[in-house]
Design goal:
With 601 residues, this protein is α+β, with helices and mostly antiparallel strands. The chain is 51% helix and 19% strand. It has helices at residues 2-10, 14-40, 45-79, 82-89, 95-104, 107-114, 141-144, 147-153, 197-205, 283-334, 349-394, 399-416, 419-437, 445-463, 488-499, 532-543, 553-566, and strands at 118-125, 136-137, 160-166, 171-182, 187-195, 210-214, 220-223, 248-254, 257-266, 275-282, 443-444, 467-473, 481-482, 506-515, 518-525, 573-576, 582-589. A five-stranded mixed beta sheet has the order 2-1-5-4-3, with helices on both faces. Strands 7-6-10-9-8 form a five-stranded antiparallel beta sheet. The chain has a five-stranded mixed beta sheet with strand order 12-14-15-17-16. The longest helix has 52 residues, at 283-334. The model is unreliable at 392-397 and 596-601 (pLDDT under 50).
């Protein structure tokens, strides 16, 4: 039967549920209480006042318990947090290690942000390698000698509730205090969680009668009367005969008036001590104002009910329309329409859902675009890698260069014998082998420089004293990874286009250096250089997609491979001027991070 009722309620519209909930939860109970008060309250004003006080105190107790239970839950989690245990027990060697450990453990800040019931968390622990950051604190001698600290260290994990001062802002808070044992690390700490005083004040401010929360030492933690927080009960003309009383209702004289005092003791779970809730009301005031309260309450209740019914009806219509509009847009997205945008008409939960819906649709569109761009770049990179393999085998080793080199070898062999021939043949063989073995995987800079050295030595054999070169390689860069055959085409360009037409010969300089998080490669020559028109043509040709007859294919291949592998900002940078030579440079991340994964990855 119960399941049938629940199923029937779930089938109702949201508007109908809200109206029914109001009638069942508010309207009916209020009508019953109103009728009862009309007939009985005049004769039982005092008894009803006592009952009301008990209800108020019980409500305060429950709400206060909810507030401090949040601190208990957090303390339980922290006491069983293995990451916190490692952070607390680790002996750090540098300040950087400590800062990194704090950064990797944001849980305390997250608890403070997520739980409005608490205002702060601090952990006292004996670890000289840690830094005080108001979350992890090295206890001072005064702290260690304090009663609450000593009690926590000897309590075997039981919780203490004390009204203590927070040395960070000099204010007093009701605080959860417990010892945390890190058994695996054989260490311990004292956890202090400040309860949010404003929430306690907010709970009491809703009460009609004077209500206070006091600790076991009779210090007033919170009160709905100004000027009492932080004082002792003995300082506010409180009846000394009931100062130390526990749960119950007592007759007392407060501020020279006959009063009733309701006391409720709250001892949270796993606690050594607790707090007390005191509610005080004057007997004379209750009896005198009973009739006026009945009349006023009846009028207010009926007006509130009428207004509430009207508001509930209007709000339910508004919520239903907004939820239906959100449902329609979700249906459109489910059918594949990603061009929808939901109008945001509020900052409540539905408005938040609308913003999240728009953000989700936008994220999906961005992800789709990124996937398409990534696939396109990956395809281009694979194509370029395959292209470079074939061109290295078929055309990058210039037949004219091979012919001239072999002719020079023949002439040297005829004139001088076999020693230099063996050397050049060995260099040529090594270079051809490197080119034939080149793939898309990265190689070390040292391996790439070996190819460049072989090429320059062969060219120097050909040009003799007309060609000079210099390798300025930072030893720290030799083991860094780089794309294969990425420097040799730049050197070949410098020799062929920069120096070949100079009768007096020229000089090529290859430089590799570290610059922060980048490695910079520079190839420069003192050749004939280029005027601005020619330089602009070369720069434009680097961005063209098709191979033109006048384009420098080797340079464009290097430029495209760098951009596809490391990002567009890592292409070739060329500077040149007539008779001043040419300088070509590029940078790559020292970590070798790829912008788009290659085919072999």
């Amino acid at each position: 039967m119960f399941r049938i009722i629940i199923r029937g309620i779930n089938d109702l519209k949201l508007r109908t549920k809200l109206i029914l909930s109001f009638i069942v939860v508010v309207f009916i109970p209020v009508m019953i209480v109103g009728l009862f008060l009309t007939n009985e309250l005049r004769h039982q004003a005092l008894d009803n006042a006592l009952e009301q006080t008990a209800v108020n105190v019980d409500r305060v107790k429950k709400r206060t318990s909810e507030v401090i239970n949040a601190a208990y839950d957090i303390s339980y989690r922290l006491s069983n947090d293995s990451r916190l245990a490692r952070l607390a027990a680790t002996e750090y060697e540098t300040v950087y290690d400590v800062v990194k450990a704090y950064k990797d453990y944001p849980d305390i800040k997250e608890y403070i942000s997520l739980y409005k019931e608490i205002s702060n968390i601090r952990i006292y622990l004996d670890n000289p390698t840690l830094l005080d950051n108001w979350e992890f604190i090295q206890p001072s001698e005064s702290i260690i000698n304090s009663g609450w600290y000593q009690s926590a260290m000897s309590s075997s994990g039981l919780i203490g509730w004390n009204y203590i001062e927070d040395e960070r802002d000099g204010k007093k808070y009701l605080s959860l205090i417990r010892k945390i044992d890190f058994r695996d690390e054989m260490s311990s700490a004292v956890l202090v969680i400040n309860v949010n005083s404003r929430m306690l004040d907010a709970i009491l401010n809703q009460e009609t009668f004077e209500t206070m929360i006091v600790d076991e030492n009779n210090n007033i933690i919170s009160s709905n009367r100004p000027g009492r927080v932080g004082k002792g009960l003995s300082e506010i003309d409180f009846d000394p005969s009931i100062v130390n009383k526990q749960s119950g209702t007592y007759n007392a004289v407060v501020n020279e008036q006959s009063s009733k005092i309701r006391i409720e003791t709250l001892i949270p779970l796993s606690s050594l001590n607790g707090i007390r809730i005191l509610s005080v009301f004057s007997v004379k005031t209750i009896v005198k104002d009973a009739n006026q309260i009945i009349i006023l309450a009846t009028i207010v209740i009926f007006i509130s009910l009428i207004v509430a019914i009207v508001l509930i009806y209007g709000f339910s219509n508004l919520l239903s329309k907004r939820m239906l509009r959100l449902s329609k847009h979700i249906t459109k997205v489910a059918t594949g329409n990603l061009d929808v945008t939901l109008a945001i008409d509020g900052k409540d939960e539905i408005g938040q859902l609308s913003r999240q819906f728009n953000a989700m649709v936008g994220s999906i569109n961005v992800l789709l675009a990124e996937v398409q761009e990534s696939n396109l770049q990956k395809t281009q990179l694979v194509t370029r890698q395959n292209e470079i393999k074939f061109k290295m085998l078929a055309s990058q080793i210039n037949p004219h260069f091979l012919f001239n080199a072999l002719e020079s070898i023949r002439m040297k062999a005829h004139i001088k014998g076999e020693k230099e021939i063996a050397k050049v043949v060995r260099l040529l063989g090594r270079m051809m082998r490197k080119n034939l073995e080149a793939g898309s995987k990265e190689v070390t800079l040292r391996s790439e420089i070996e190819v460049v050295r072989c090429y320059l030595d062969i060219q120097k054999f050909r040009y003799e004293s007309r060609l000079g070169y210099e390798l300025v390689i930072d030893p720290l860069t030799e083991q860094l990874h780089i794309l294969p055959l990425i420097i040799q085409p730049l050197v070949e360009n410098a020799v062929i286009h920069g120096l070949e037409n100079k009768q007096e010969g020229g000089y090529v300089r290859i430089k590799a250096e570290l610059m922060d998080k980048w490695m910079r490669i520079e190839v420069s020559d003192n050749g004939e250089g280029m005027d601005k028109q020619r330089l602009d043509f070369v720069l434009r040709s680097l961005e063209e997609q098709e191979d033109e007859a006048n384009n420098r294919i080797g340079l464009r291949n290097v430029h495209m491979r760098l951009q596809l592998s490391y990002g567009r900002e890592h292409g070739l940078v060329i500077t040149s001027s007539p008779d001043s030579g040419t300088k070509i440079s590029f940078t790559i991340p020292t970590g070798g991070g790829r912008h788009v994964q290659s085919a072999d990855s």
